[in-house]
Amino acid sequence: MRQTLGIDSDFGNLIRRNIFRAISFIILSLFIVRLGYLQIVQGNIYRLKAETQAIKQIMIDPFRGNIYDRNGEIIVHNAPAFSVTITPSEFRVEAIPLLASILQVDTAEIRQAYEESKLLSRVKPNKIYRDADFKTLASLEENHDLLPGVDIVVEFKRLYESSANMAHSLGYTRQISESQLKTMGDYYSPGDIVGYSGMERTYENYLRGAKGVQMVAVNATGQKVASFQEGRNDVLPEEGFDLHLGIDKGMQELAEKLLSGRSGAIVALDPNNGELIAFASKPDFDLRDFSGRTPGNVYGKLLKDESKPLYNRATLAAYPPGSTWKMLMAAACLQEGIITPKYTFTCTGGYTFGGRTWKCHGGKAHGVVNAQRAIHVSCNAFFNSMGPKLGIDNFTKYGRMFGFGEKTYIDISEDNSGLLPSLNYYKRHGLGEREIDGRLVNLGIGQGELLVTPTQMAVYCAALANGGTIYQPHFVNSIFNRKTKKMETIPFANRTVKVNPEIFSLIQNAMYEVVNVPGGTALAARVDGVNVCGKTGTAQNPHGNDHAWFICFAPKEKPRIAMCVMVENAGLGGAISAPIAQKMLQKFFYPQSDSTKLRIDSTTLKEAIAQGTHD
Predict the structure, then answer these.
(1) Residue 469 pLDDT more than 90?
(2) Per-residue pLDDT averaged across 403-420, rounded?
(3) Residues near 433 by beta carbon (within 8 Å), at least 6 away in sequence
(4) pTM for the whole thing?
(5) Pick the CATH number of 56-241 from 3.40.50.300, 3.30.413.10, 3.90.1310.10, 3.40.50.2000
(6) Which helix (H) or strand (E) holds 120?
(7) pLDDT tens sequence across 20-43
(8) Domain limits, the chain
(9) Before 555, cis peptide (omega within 30)?
């Protein structure tokens, strides 16, 4: 029948058999290829997925903003640093000996860090070791599987490109404290670096930048095994904004060198806007000790140091101003009409009030002097007599007008208001009217209860130079905004002293004579080709040698710099502080010259010392 129909059953069976074989071969081949692809090509991916237990967020610290000087030269920048973190919920105490051995620290230190980390957060990593070297990093990687919960993160450390320390102005950064974590907002986490002093603290919100976030897959032991979704959900960190200062790096380096081995301060600023050009306080410390891994005893040693290197003498230390106060007394008495520019006083070598005699400096009799001449030769007797005439209320009024008795509001947190005596002050101390007049005799020459800081004196000198404008002193003049890519100028306050311009002109002429005319006490501050104006002061110190003051500005015609130099326990302002100021001015007006060498001969210096006895 099959043959009749022309159907060959054998042939049909063979065809079907071949088709079946082909299909089976194709299917088997596909399975083999797919299996090979999964095992060989994507084996690692699927193994990581199999090991993955959770998604973990790793915070990425941004680089802190850079800091530049007035000429665009970099002062502070950053370098990458590697820190070791512990996540308490993943860490095992059995790993403490191994981790301590790798980090070369005592096991007790690691145990303490672990316990403190648990108190802060069990699930967030906490930095326990900063600035690890490559040998340490390699050992940690080799023992990765034995150290669950231990990770390495990249952060920054500060680098300083200057021979000057600028310790009290730049400030330093440290790991955030537990108390700060509670008050500084949600941005911060345990182990973060924050500004602790100086500009680093004041401008923290600008310098810190914005953290980034990396999403990673972790296994059962908390170890990172893969980047989550190939990093598509990661957030890149944003570098902090840059600070641009009025500080001149060369002037700053010279200021610190000139104060080396002394205790004191130099504050120089632009009298036209209040920008600080140099700001030095000695003794000081090296900010590099606080960059990266800081030994635990560094801060303790500084605290115990008897020279007080942490103490900012430029803004916190307050002293009697001595004869540098005489220009304020002249301005007040002239403005109030108590005296006129033609008023004269006969100096016989001292001034007697209430049965007590105050000697003129060096016991000299200056003869007939007016206000300008009295400033020129620094006649104590003239200004002793002005104190009771001015009266305590006017004394306090004009002192406050020039910024004394209140903070300068400099853009760092350390700022002392000093002490400006008032009627209420003396009444609280039980003094009567006659006794207060007696105190005013002493206050007239910048002695007594009156206390001022070097920064206040620099601001005061700048006002004398510019004709009566008090500018808020400041380090930062602009900030580079990395988001807008624009430089943003920071506004600072200023106010006007209500004193007639003719009075400022008289004072400026007198201060010019102090430096440039024989009989002046600051001949050692002269600079060739520059009309320097200044005033010396020697403040009595009941606890030791007198303090040496000198304030100055230059040039007389269009002042570009005003400065205060104060050296503790150094003696004569004309012999000690004026020569220091001369070197600073030499550097400012002639940057390429060797400012470490005085440009005055020995005869001039001897004359300056002779004129400056007790002043």
Answers:
(1) yes
(2) 97
(3) none
(4) 0.85
(5) 3.90.1310.10
(6) helix 107-120
(7) 777 777 887 777 777 766 666 565
(8) 2-41, 56-241, 264-287+311-611
(9) yes
